[in-house]
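User: Please predict the structure of the protein below. I'd like the answer in structure-token form so I can feed it into my own downstream comparison script.

Assistant: Understood. Taking the following sequence of 129 residues as input:
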Amino acid sequence: QVQLVESGGGLVQAGGSLRLSCSASGRTFSRYTMGWFRQAPGKDREFVAAIDWNPSSTYYADSVKGRFTISRDSANNTVYLQMNSLKPEDTAVYYCAARPPKYYSGGLSPRLSWQYNYWGQGTQVTVSS
């Protein structure tokens, strides 16, 4: 059974940092693009960051560029999201997701959520002002 399990969320003051982790199990994800999305109350889910398997290209939403860093440990099927300089508008449930290799081969942008066929349950991040 495929599972993506996020951890590391919590409550932090503005300007602080958090590191989210996503542990994948049930299959090998070394050739999958791994992504982070978030959804704030009353808003649509939005792309945050993604990392390809080869050569580990990274992608970021403009709103987090320069503050967030995505990385992966393919040997351990784990992806991370280091979040620095957090702002109240970063408050949301953060989801980890996995995109099959066929979309990477097709050259499609990893910012599109419909390409991801595995999703975690999410972890809450709350940034207080």
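That's the full token string. The first strand starts at residue 3 and ends at 7.
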